[in-house]
Amino acid sequence: MTAPKRVQNQPAWLLHHRPFRDTSRILDIISRDYGRLSLVARGSRSANSKLKGYLRPFLPVQMSWFIRSDLGTLTGAEMNGAPISLSGDALLSAYYINELLLNLLHKHDPQTDIFSAYQKTIETLNREADVAAVLRRFEMELLRLLGYGLNLDHDTESDAELDANRRYEYRIELGPVPVTGGEGPMIFTGTELIAIREQAFSDPLVLKNANRLLRQVIAWHLNGKELKSRKVLMEMRQSGSTQERK
Fold first, then answer.
1. Which of 68, 142, 163, 209 has its CA 20 to 30 A from that of 177?
2. d(CA 74, CA 215)
3. Any idea what DSSP says for residue 52?
4. C-alpha to C-alpha distance for 60 and 111, rounded to whole angstroms
5. How far are the Cα atoms of 21, 57, 58, 140 from residue 119, in angstroms, in the given order?
6. What does pTM read for this prediction?
7. Beta partners for 78?
8. 120 and 21 in a common domain
């Protein structure tokens, strides 16, 4: 752990919180300069807590803390920008992003670029209607910054540039491998992979293919763990489709 004993006014976002003892909470946060870490917010569940209004997800804050082990103690929090109000798919998508960070980031590992990408994405969800496109861009950027970036430039057999007219199987540990036929969740045409690389997400088919690819890649990096927010989002969309057919 590289964090000093005391940190003052550090830009941060709350990713998750859970009750701790009678009136306290444990906060999982992402901070700009110290990465992901956990803090005890003592008394923050009490009715007269001064911190209560600041300790919620998707609110830009500055936090101060004292830390001597893996678990620190929050000593202060205040607003660090305009409040953000998310609802519907945007809210569920933001919770999904939080779960990704909680499961993919190591504690006490500074990731300033990921912090910036997260902040930009939350702010974008607050104003853009195309939530799915925002998510796909964030997923691709997060994988790249973690060192798991997608190979969408060349096939892994010949190192040649992707051929728009060929079919490929995307193998997570390698990248696109040319195939002569077959169907499956990881079979794509060169045209489809190139469009994903270019993030041409205004095309619904490209967006659908990107989701198909990224879902498999992220599940692999999560060791198959199913994220609660993704499950809820999928169930809501399936329910909506069922209602439309009635």
1. 142
2. 35
3. G
4. 17
5. 31, 12, 9, 15
6. 0.89
7. 62
8. no
> Nearest to residue 60, comparing CAs of 96, 94, 108, 110?
94
C-alpha distance from residue 94 to each of 87, 109, 175, 211 (Å): 10, 22, 28, 16
Query: If you write DSSP's letter for every residue of 123-188 in order, what string do you get?
Result: HHHTT-S-HHHHHHHHHHHHHHHTT-----SB-TTT-PBPPTTSEEEEETTTEEEEESS--STTEE
Q: Which two tokens stand for residue 77?
A: 């929090």
Quick check: 244 pLDDT over 60?
A: no
SS3 content of the chain, % helix, strand, coil (to 5): 40, 25, 35
Same domain flag for 136 and 205: yes
Higher-scoring residue by pLDDT: 147, 69: 147
Token pair in block for residue 82: 């305009």
Where on the phi/psi map is residue 18: left (φ > 0), alpha (ψ -120 to 50), or beta?
beta
Tens digit of pLDDT for each residue in 20-41?
988 999 999 999 999 999 999 9
**14 belongs to a structural domain:** yes
Alpha-helical segments (H) within 198-227? 204-221
Last residue of a domain, one of 22, 49, 79: 79
Range of the domain at 137: 88-245
Of the pLDDT bands very low, low, confident and very high (cuts 50, 70, 90), residue 52 is confident
